[in-house]
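Severity: low
Component: inverse-folding endpoint
Summary: output formatting inconsistent between runs
Steps to reproduce: submit the following structure tokens with default settings.
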């Protein structure tokens, strides 16, 4: 069996032993992103969509939901960029 290369930033920065298919399944991504450098961008896009939908479901206005989503996405991107600096690897 061919060993596949995982590209998800959490695994590659030492934050967990997550297989790319775990990320695909948990976020409902197209499986084509597994074992591909595109997984991290696809995961961020899916998380952004889910965050916005969830904030609206919780009763926030679209504007409030967008601001909250942007805040959380900025934080996530910052964490990924920090992991890039720490590991010397490119995730986004």
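Observed output (run 2 of 3):
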């Amino acid at each position: 069996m061919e060993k596949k290369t995982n590209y998800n930033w959490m695994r590659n920065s030492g934050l967990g032993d997550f297989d790319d298919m775990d990320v695909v399944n948990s976020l409902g991504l197209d499986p084509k992103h597994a074992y591909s450098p595109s997984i991290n961008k696809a995961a961020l896009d899916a998380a952004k969509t889910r965050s916005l939908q969830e904030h609206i479901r919780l009763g926030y206005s679209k504007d409030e939901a967008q601001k909250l989503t942007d805040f959380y996405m900025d934080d996530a991107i910052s964490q990924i960029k920090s992991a890039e600096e720490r590991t010397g690897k490119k995730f986004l």
